[in-house]
Every structure is written in structure tokens, then in C-alpha cells.
Design brief:
Layout (H helix, E strand, L loop, with lengths): L1 H10 L3 E5 L10 E5 L6 H13 L3 E6 H4 L4 H7 L3 E3 L5 H12 L3 E4 L17 H9 L3 E7 L13 H4 L3 E6 L13 H18 L16
Parallel strand pairs: 1-7, 2-5, 2-6, 3-4, 3-5
Antiparallel strand pairs: 6-7
């Protein structure tokens, strides 16, 4: 899957532009809380991490995807973690175990791909997992991946080809000792700050007027 992603991203001439790579752990468990503007954000973060540390991320994925005849076997082979939206306790326990076993766990706290280019309200599960497992919580903002594949626009080669993929990796967060209903709001503040930095410093401009939809 890594090789497949490298071939795809190479064919599109995507240009990774990570910042904060020093915050990614070379070993041990950690929760990666990632923004979600594009459907391939998980693969782009994995791409950046693999180039740095040759580490694999176990993502939380909706349980329905595990039932698909094609994606199901692939997800199980890659040891991703199924999450039932109606009863998430099993996925939560599996995530805690994975963290304690030294794995990286990737979470999209927004819960869905957004087409507004603003970080949506976040759930607090990522912070609670990190606290329960005694693992670092690392916020990550991805900007540019939405140009490849997103919710609100069909794939466009002119928009995707040669895109800079900005991946801003924040310093590990110190999770508050007492987590309440504001855990998601607290996490979102850090993710919004990273996303604002990524958007402000993004170097690309649309090549055609009809491709300006991906700008802020």
C-alpha cells in the first residue's frame, strides 16, 4: 500500500511540504489528531511519516468500511481499527491497547470530510485516548490534499497535478488532567491554529480561474 501510494502521488507530482517533523516519535505510541479536508489525508500523512521514520499508522475507520468486499480485507491486513458510530466503546478499547503496545493511532476528530475549508467542531475522543493510554497527543493540519480528492468537487487533474501538500505537525499537547465536554473544543483550538498557519503560508495559486475553488 505504501508503494501504491508513492506511485500515485509520484504520478500526480505531489510535493510534500512537512513542518514539525521533529514532533513525530520514532518509536512508542502516540495519537495523531488530523484535520480532514480531503479523502486522502490519511494516506498523505502516512506518506510523510513513512519517509521520516518508516512507521505505520493504525487509523480509526468506520466499521462499515470493514464490511466491504474490497476495502475490508485491506483494512484488516493493515490492522486499522474499526469504529461503530453507534457503539464506539469497542474501537476505543482497541485504540487504547494499540497505543499501549507502542502503535501510532490516527484519528480524524471532525468525524467527516468538510468542504468549508474550516476545521469543524471536534470530538474529544482523541484527547481521552491519549490521556487513558499515557500517550502523546499530536495535532496535524493537512492543506493541499483536498485538491486531489474531496467531498465537494470531482477529481480534476489540473487542480491536483503538482499540488503542494502542506503538513503542519504540532508539538505534543499536554492533555488536561480533568477532561470534560470541552475536550473537543480544546483540541480544535490547536488544530485551527495549525491550519491557519498552513493556509497563510501555502505557496500555490490556481493555474486556471475555474480551479480557484480550493483556495480560502
Amino acid at each position: 500500500m505504501i508503494r501504491l501510494g508513492q506511485c500515485l502521488f509520484g504520478a500526480l507530482r505531489l510535493r510534500p511540504a512537512p513542518q514539525g517533523l521533529e514532533h513525530l516519535p520514532s518509536s512508542g505510541g502516540a495519537v495523531l489528531a488530523i484535520t480532514h479536508f480531503g479523502y486522502l489525508d490519511f494516506a498523505l500523512v502516512q506518506w510523510v511519516l513513512w519517509r521520516r521514520h518508516r512507521r505505520w499508522i493504525r487509523f480509526l475507520v468506520t466499521a462499515r468500511a470493514f464490511e466491504h468486499p474490497v476495502s475490508g480485507p485491506l483494512l484488516r491486513a493493515m490492522q486499522h481499527i474499526p469504529v461503530d458510530r453507534e457503539a464506539g466503546a469497542g474501537g476505543y478499547r482497541a485504540s487504547i491497547k494499540a497505543l499501549r503496545d507502542g502503535h501510532l493511532v490516527g484519528v480524524f476528530p471532525e468525524g467527516q470530510v468538510t468542504g468549508t475549508w474550516e476545521v469543524l467542531p471536534c470530538a474529544g475522543g482523541a484527547a481521552r485516548m491519549a490521556s487513558a493510554a499515557g500517550a502523546p497527543l499530536i495535532p496535524i493540519a493537512v492543506w493541499g490534499g483536498h485538491r486531489v480528492l474531496t467531498r465537494t468537487h470531482r477529481f480534476s487533474l489540473p487542480a491536483a497535478a503538482g499540488a503542494t501538500i502542506s503538513v503542519r505537525i504540532g508539538a505534543p499537547l499536554e492533555v488536561p488532567r480533568r477532561l470534560d465536554d470541552d475536550a473537543g473544543r480544546w483540541l480544535r483550538q490547536h488544530m485551527v491554529r495549525l491550519m491557519n498557519e498552513a493556509q497563510r503560508s501555502y505557496p500555490d495559486r490556481p493555474r486556471r480561474p475555474q480551479d480557484d475553488w480550493w483556495q480560502v
